[in-house]
Design goal:
The protein is mainly beta and 103 residues long. It has one domain (5-102). The protein has one helix and ten strands. It has a five-stranded mixed beta sheet, with no helix packed on it.
């Protein structure tokens, strides 16, 4: 997973980062409900280290043009997940030539 500090810093719930030595990584989110694989589906979760409630969203692994959608740093999965499963993936967002892309 590619993580860019600018995408996960200061974005609030779901964007909490914790240190692993000198590396920064998204805080894992553990599901408290199951997540379907339909793009945009959400499931309740708890951030593993800080114990903050959040949501995990089902989203594509490919960049999609999207002016609105989940914020950068939102925990996500590209496939269905069962209760108690943990994800370390987060939504990535970038803007190029006036278009916003998310994955």
């Amino acid at each position: 997973m590619v993580a860019t500090l600018g995408l996960i810093t200061g974005l609030g719930i779901g964007a909490v980062a914790h240190g692993a030595g000198t590396a920064m990584a998204p805080e894992p989110a553990k599901l408290s409900t199951s997540l379907s694989s339909s793009t945009g589906a959400t499931a309740a979760a708890i951030l593993v280290t800080s114990h903050v409630p959040t949501r995990v969203v089902a989203y594509s692994t490919s960049f999609m043009t999207s002016a609105s959608g989940p914020a950068a740093g939102t925990p996500c999965s590209s496939s269905a997940m069962a209760i108690d499963a943990t994800t370390t993936h987060v939504i990535q967002v970038y803007v190029s030539s006036g278009y916003t892309y998310r994955r």
